[in-house]
Amino acid sequence: xxxxxxxxxxxxxxxxxxxxxGRSYLVRARSGHGKTSLLNFIYGISGQYDGEVVLxxxxxxxxxxxxxxxxxxxxxxxxxxxHRFATGTATGSSFSPLREGMANARTENELRTRVLSxxxxxxxxxxxxxxxxxxxxxxxxxxxxxxxxxxxxxDALLPEGKKHQPVATLSLGQRQRxxxxxxxxxxxxxxxxxxxxxxxxxxxxxCVADMVMGEVGRQGAGLIVTALDAIDYFPFDVTYxx
Length: 242
Hints:
The longest helix has 18 residues, at 202-219. The chain is globular, with a radius of gyration of 18 Å. It has a single domain, classed as P-loop containing nucleotide triphosphate hydrolases (Rossmann fold, 3-Layer(aba) Sandwich). It contains seven helices and eight strands. It starts with 15 loop residues before the first strand and ends with a strand. It is an alpha/beta fold.
């Protein structure tokens, strides 16, 4: 996107933006205006931006090399600083500062199984596997939930018997609920959710939100949700207009 397209953004082109562990954020924008891109930058799967994404630990701001910043600023553990952020270039450096900034997350795998969780907009489910198998596959990487806990979570969000059906046979809204459960099957300091309710009715959306906030609270984690407009399923601390 051009600078004129993001001139009014609360995030893009700003001197810095902070996402703190323990707080909930809504990032809203119309379709095609960079919501998914922003989460991809934070998660480290796209470097198509100009700026810097930094994850800190123990209140220390760290540089891309992992050294403490000269400004000496301190903040709560596990948060992102986004500096002069803009899309459209390939000069971003998402993974080095994230990886080096967390002493207990030295690899990309550890970062994505212990620090960041992501409910993707395209869900990323395996259609030939059942809902239960999709979640179990993720859980094998983290050993975070028991099978009984996973079954209880799916039973709370899906009609009876659906958890043992191939994902290909489920509605899009049901698949979104499966993806939400899968995203909760790991320890995390911040969870990213990309338009999680786009195909879910309000009653089921509230059930998903309650489950997510319960896990976020237990882990003392942060939450970043993208949406086309305001949503009231989460108690957001901050709303950014992208």
